[in-house]
Amino acid sequence: MATIGTSGIDVSRLCLGANVFGWTADRDTSFAVLDAFVGAGGNFVDTADSYMWRIPGNSGGESETIIGEWFAAHGRRDDVVLATKVSSLPARKGLAAANIAAACDDSLRRLQTDHIDLYYAHYDDQSVAQEEYLDAFDSLVRAGKVRAIAASNFTAERLRSALEISRRDGLAEFVALQPHYNLVERSEFETALLPVLESEGLSCMPYYGLAKGFLTGKYRDGGAAVDSPRAEGALAYLDDRGRAVLAVLDEIAAGHEVPVAAVALAWLAAQPTVVAPIASARTTEQLAELLPVLDLKLTDDEVRLLTHVSG
C-alpha cells in the first residue's frame, strides 16, 4: 500500500480503470472483474461521470452505475478507495460551482454511496475562476461528501496556481494528478509536470499506463489481429523504439515469470511520485495479466534499462 499525497488514503499499487464498464464490459463481466481485483488485494478503482457517454445507446454515468450496483450487491464499499471525476459529461460540463455540486450528488446517487474518496477535476475549465471551483471542491470536503480532491489533465502552470490559491485561501488542496504517462509517452509529464509534483508533494496516478494496450505485448509485426477498439491507436507505437521496448519487456517478463503488461506497469510504479498506475481490464483474463504488479518490484538495473530504451 502507498499513501496518496497528504490525504492519508492508502491504496494498492494498481488502480483499476473502470472506463470499460458499460462499454466493452457488460454488467456481469464488470462485476466479475471487480470481484477478482478486490479478491487479489486491489482496493483502488477509478471512474468518471462521463464514462462512457460517447458510446451509442449510452448517456454517461454507466460505469458509475455498475460500480454502485456492485456495492449494493456485495456490500464492499469499505474495501474500495473510489475515485471519480467531474467536468467532462456533456450534461454536467465544466467546473462552475453549481455544476460541481450537482455533479457530485449525481455521482453519489449512481455509485450508491455517501462519499467519494478522491474527486478529480477531469479537465481544467479556464472559463471559471480557479477560486470558484476550488471553493466548490472545498465545500464538498467540508460536507463529508468527498475525502480528498485531485486534478486530471492540468498543465503545470494551472496545477501550481491552483495549489497557491488553495493555500492562500485555506481551502482543500489537490493531493494528486492524473496525467497521460507511460513507458512510451514520457516527455510531457517528466519535463513539465513531474517537477511540480515533486516540489509540492503530490502523487501521480497515470492513465493510459499501457499505451492503449501496446504495452501488453499483444501488438507485434505479423501478429494476429487484436479485437479491441483501441487496436489502431496501439499499433501507432509499433516503430523501431516500440519494438526495442517490447524486446526488453519480454526479457524482463521472462525473468520474473510474469506477463509483459505487469512489467510495463511496474516500471511506472517505480517512477518518482507515481503511487498507482491506472489500467483497465474488460475480462478477468485481462485482469490476470495486470495483477502481478501488486507485488512485482523490478531491480534498479531493470528500471534503468527500460528507461534507457524508451527514452
Quick description:
The strands form 2 sheets. The chain has an 8-stranded parallel sheet, covered by helices on one side. A two-stranded antiparallel ribbon has the order 1-2. The chain is built from 11 helices and 10 strands. By secondary structure, it is of the alpha/beta class.
Structure description:
Residues 13-307 form the NADP-dependent oxidoreductase domain. Pfam families: Aldo_ket_red. This is Aldo/keto reductase. There is one protein chain. The protein has 311 residues and is of the alpha/beta class. The protein has one domain: TIM Barrel (Alpha-Beta Barrel). Helix content is 42%, strand content 13%. It is built from 11 helices and 10 strands. The chain has helices at residues 27-39, 62-74, 97-111, 130-142, 156-169, 187-200, 231-235, 240-256, 260-269, 284-290, 300-310; strands at residues 2-3, 10-11, 15-17, 44-46, 81-86, 116-121, 146-152, 174-178, 203-204, 278-280. The strands form 2 sheets. It has an 8-stranded parallel β-sheet, with helices on one face. Strands 1-2 form a two-stranded antiparallel sheet. Strand 6 (116-121), helix 4 (130-142) and strand 7 form a beta-alpha-beta unit.
Break the fold down into its secondary structure elements and pairings.
Elements: E1 2-3, E2 10-11, E3 15-17, H1 27-39, E4 44-46, H2 62-74, E5 81-86, H3 97-111, E6 116-121, H4 130-142, E7 146-152, H5 156-169, E8 174-178, H6 187-200, E9 203-204, H7 231-235, H8 240-256, H9 260-269, E10 278-280, H10 284-290, H11 300-310
Protein name: Aldo/keto reductase
Pfam family, one: Aldo_ket_red
Domain NADP-dependent oxidoreductase: 13-307
